[in-house]
Design brief:
41% helix, globular, Rossmann fold, 2 domains, alpha/beta
Length: 310
């Protein structure tokens, strides 16, 4: 198990040795976001911008304009919140080659509470034109995603977590922007998941198999652009969809899937996530249970949607 933020720090430092155009900016949180790993290796290409997120975004846009490949990091609540206007105006509008990698997304921030638990950042970033939005499932996918993001020309928002998460993908897994992955085949329903909920869905699928329910697990690492081909295939072949994310059900993965299938292929569907409310303080594992972001909830929803399908 490894935290996606730790995998980010490792990948960024490796890339720094391969591409001297990569520069890194942080808002005084490099120890937590793990950009400090890059800073130690390449101090002349690391900029601590202080607690001034808007300024950090504007500076990154300027660096991109002169040919650098800037990665900027802070917590998700600050990246999508305090930096939003500059991200829209200075990064997305001119299609600046800026990589926003936000850590500590979702309720697993834990004891910091609702003020610091960003459950709406994916929706905010997804609504901005020209923005690509990525939420990796584990450390291995994070490493691949950071490499793909560095090679991609244009604005990207990558959402990472605080805690260690189970491995879903094998070493050397290749990440492709805009492409989902069928992790577990199935015919009765499909779990369409992202982030740490993909591991929970794999566990749920294994337990449902013992009950005679065949659950497919489709991991969506790129929320925008959505892999419409695999989503449509899942809807047509299984006839029932349960989305799951550590994010609000408003505007995130569940919203993206519902919007697309509502027009392309109306399908029985249930969204699992945070239901239009703020987070609260507590231990991360307790909060996942409190909000129903676990395998047990997915099993219950799978049983319910399969019975409705019949």
């Amino acid at each position: 198990m490894i935290a996606t933020r730790d995998a980010y720090g490792e990948a960024l430092a490796e890339l720094g040795g391969e591409n001297d155009k990569i520069v890194v900016l942080d808002a005084d949180l490099s120890g937590s976001t793990k950009t400090g790993v890059f800073a130690k290796k390449f101090p002349n290409r690391f900029f601590n911008m202080g607690i001034a997120e808007a300024n950090m975004v504007g500076t990154a846009a300027g660096l991109a304009a002169v040919g650098k490949v800037p990665f900027l990091s802070t917590f998700a609540i600050f990246a999508a919140g305090r930096g939003w206007e500059q991200i829209r105006q200075s990064v997305a509008y001119p299609k600046a080659n800026v990589k926003i990698v936000a850590t500590h997304g979702g309720v697993t921030v834990g004891e910091d509470g609702g003020s610091h638990q960003s459950v709406e950042d994916v929706a905010i970033m997804r609504a901005i034109p020209n923005m690509t939005v990525i939420v990796p499932a584990d450390g291995e996918e994070t490493k691949g995603a950071i490499r793909a993001v560095a090679a991609y020309k244009g604005p990207v928002y990558v959402r990472l977590g605080r805690n260690k998460v189970p491995s879903v993908f094998p070493a050397g897994h290749k990440f492709e922007i805009g492409k989902g992955v069928v992790v577990v085949p199935g015919t009765d329903l499909t779990f369409i998941t992202t982030g740490l909920m993909t591991a929970a869905a794999v566990t749920a699928a294994e337990k449902l198999k013992a009950e005679g329910i065949s659950a497919r697990v489709l991991h969506i690492g790129t929320i925008k652009p959505l892999d419409k081909e695999l989503v449509l295939q899942a809807a047509q072949e299984t006839g029932a969809i349960v989305t799951a994310e550590e994010h609000s059900v408003v505007g995130g993965l569940g919203g993206a899937v519902a919007e697309y299938l509502g027009e392309a292929c109306p399908t029985l569907m249930k969204r699992v996530g945070v239901y239009d409310r703020f987070g609260t303080s507590g231990k991360s594992d307790e909060l996942l249970k409190y909000f129903g972001l676990n395998a047990e909830t997915l099993i219950e929803e799978a049983r319910e949607i399969v019975s409705r399908k019949k």
